[in-house]
Automatic annotation (TrEMBL):
Residues 4-235, 251-496 form the ABC transporter domain. The keyword Kinase does not apply. Keywords: ATP-binding, Cell membrane, Membrane, Nucleotide-binding, Repeat, Sugar transport, Translocase, Transport. It is a peripheral membrane protein. SUPFAM superfamilies: P-loop containing nucleoside triphosphate hydrolases. This is ABC transporter. Coiled coil: none annotated. It comes from Marivivens niveibacter. InterPro entries: AAA+_ATPase, ABC_carbohydrate_import_ATPase, ABC_transporter-like_ATP-bd, ABC_transporter-like_CS, P-loop_NTPase. SMART domains: AAA (SM00382). GO terms for cellular component: plasma membrane. One of its GO terms (molecular function) is ATP binding.
Amino acid sequence: MTLLNLSGLTKAYPGVVANDDISFAVGKGEIHALLGENGAGKSTLVKTIYGLVKPDAGAMSLNGAPFTPQNPREARSAGIAMVFQHFSLFDALSVAENIALGMENPPSPRDLSAQITSVSNDYGLPLSPDSIVGDLSAGERQRVEIIRCLLQNPKLLIMDEPTSVLTPGEVETLFGTLRKLADEGTSILYISHKLDEIRALCHHATILRLGKVVGTCNPRETTSSAMAEMMVGFALSTPKKASDSTGETVLELRGLSAPAPHRFGTALRDISMTVSAGQVYGIGGVAGNGQDELVAALSGETKTKGDMVCLSGQPIGTLPPNARRAAGLCAAPEERNGHAAAPDMSLTENALMTGNTRMDLSKNGFLNWHKARDFAAQIIEKFDVRTPSTETAARALSGGNLQKFVVGREIMQNPKVLIVNQPTWGVDAAAAASIRQALLDLADQGSAVVVISQDLDEILEIADSFAALNEGRLSAPVPTQGLTMEKIGLMLGGATEQEAAHA
Ligand SMILES: Nc1ncnc2c1ncn2[C@@H]1O[C@H](COP(=O)(O)OP(=O)(O)OP(=O)(O)O)[C@@H](O)[C@H]1O
């Protein structure tokens, strides 16, 4: 039985038709995957269903009746719930307070706590209503968002890239919850770039390319590479490094320590590591174990004692970001909106922001806009960033395309050391392969590359060495060749176990 029917949905933005005559149906109790490369139109489509975007043409029906939500409130009251990629929670408030804020008519705090506990028990989503959100892991924060949705008794739950912040164990827990919901008749529209997960979870998939439906499949009977091919229209190749040889040490951390930057941050504790020219050094860890703090201490956003961070033997721990860039160290932080990129500024302005020093984009204090525009255009071309022009605002790009832009911008500055945090977060299979290949090419040309990622497959695919970050401590590195997921799991948990034994 059909729950939601989409017929001929079309939505154009200046220079691009984001959704072009899209028609498909989502059955009751069906877990329906929405697949497509970056910019294919997935977010636009689900925003239309959630009442955030008004289609130019086409129609929707819900349970057979016309469905034209004018805003998210109307969509919610019709039974549509959505968990966004970026959580909208207040760190300083409790779980229950956060959930009450999103409700039209919240019940009394006591009743609400009881409801939260009951939903959390029923659906295998362990969470205490009184916990302060700032103390929660990414997986637990997502549970808050899911419970918030489930309290509305949704008919359709939309999830946009829900597993990118989760550990393998948390992914299993989430899938258990989603399967139970589907068994009870809730439909789920599931957006993800992780094709293996789609094969494990989804009953049906609709594939979009350039705003159009280009295919459908049963993911259980289709290989990941066949789905990737349908998405991009050609077969993908696996990234490869030309040479395994490494040169002298370029980056060295000596007992790097830094206090937690804020109440919910992580202190860095006595981190030592060396990275050589030509090496790709992978750092794995569950989100919130010091990844952002480590990137900040390396990029210069956080300053430390000078010799805690050395570049080609020179202490740089006290230098600000621009001086580090000039010395040859570039970094791409994880959060693209507002950190790696200024959303309201054009791509040219964003290119200028980190490229000014190394790409020589100003002279005698005057910015050279012509050169900056050229630099932005080169990034767009080399990294296949789908956008109408260099003057487009960063916020108008789809998530994956902006990610390609910010990572490409640092790679193209040809740094001696590149630090990237979650380089392919939210990026489709083809673009992820091209970003990974570009990182390997950079190492092949003699740069030292540090890849911090929660995607362990990514680290195994491109890194020479692996170290685990746990509560602000970094393990000793091991070669990735022959490393199994089991051993990585032990390394990720290792420091905690030692601490537990110590305690
Ligand atoms: N508000 C907007 N203004 C202008 N263009 C937009 C806007 N929103 C989306 N677009 C464009 O519409 C197209 C589809 O974008 P959309 O975000 O729907 O893609 P997506 O499939 O969700 O991509 P991703 O996987 O990268 O998140 C892209 O070319 C994007 O640049």
